Amino acid sequence: MSDTRLKSPEFVSFLHEAESFHISLTEEQQVKFLHYMDLMLEWNQKINLTAITDFHDILTLHFLDSLALAKYENLSQKSKIADIGTGAGFPGIPLAIAFPELQILLLDSLNKRVNFLNEVINRLGLQNCTAVQSRAEDGARQTTYREKFDLVTSRAVASLSPLCEYCLPYAKIGGKFYAYKSLKTEEECSNSSAAIQILGGKIQHIYSVYPQDSERKRTLVCIEKIKPTPNKYPRKAGTPVKKPL
User: Fold this and answer.
1) 155 is in an annotated binding site
2) For binding S-adenosyl-L-methionine, which residues are annotated in this chain's numbering (predicted)?
3) Which of 16, 128, 140, 192 has its CB 3.0 to 4.6 Å from that of 161, i.e. a possible disulfide?
């Protein structure tokens, strides 16, 4: 039996907005989004995954927000993406559902969240996803991951300087790091410009996903990887936040 939520005004609006990001979802993909939501809400009763639990809010503030990357990058071509500090799987899992040709690494430091992610991957049959438990600093020192990804994403709450130290080492030369940010983006970029240069990056663009008068505030800071990250970065766990570059 078809899930009646697929015909709800909230879900229809979600599909229309996804189309504005150049994403057309099959019914199978639509069902996967709802299944993902159900699993997240089920696990949220056991572990802290999200404070956002309303149907409409999950569709807009989690799913659409994650898919916004497709507005600025052509994701229909095969690419390797590393989602650092993925938490409940954002933006990695929505991107994996919408673009099965992508290969996505979901990296998180907490085992309980990785267990959740593995259940989502298995239950939804996401063969293009791998969930790994690791601190960002440790994963970036592994040759398997260092400078191997076309795109790196993070919706983490850290300020831009430590976030770049965590994430830029994963991007290959010519690749990009997209930091999902909300407020004070230009100020953060200005304060982080020296750190970004040290880490081998260059701010390419700051995208405002929604109009300025929208209630939703989301910017994507696109940082291009133009040279290798020096081997001493990232520094040991905790240092990037305590002593930003």
Assistant:
1) yes
2) 85, 90, 136-137, 155
3) 192
Asked if residue 90 belongs to a known ligand binding site, the reply is yes
Q: How far apart are CA 72 and CA 66, in angstroms?
A: 12
Token code pair at residue 73: 């990058």
Query: 228-241 as b/e, with b when 16 or more CB fall inside 10 Å?
Result: ebeeebbeeeeebe
pLDDT per residue rounded down to tens, the chain (245 residues) = 578 999 999 999 999 999 999 999 999 999 999 999 999 999 999 999 999 999 999 999 999 999 999 999 999 877 999 999 999 999 999 999 999 999 999 999 999 999 999 999 999 999 999 999 999 999 999 999 999 999 999 997 788 999 999 999 999 999 999 999 987 788 889 989 999 999 999 999 999 988 766 777 899 999 999 999 999 999 988 888 888 88
Reduce the DSSP state of residue 174 to 3 states and report it: strand
- Asked whether residue 99 is marked as a ligand-binding residue, the answer is no
Please indicate if the annotation marks 140 as binding a ligand.
Answer: no
Give the tokens for residue 196. 């970004």
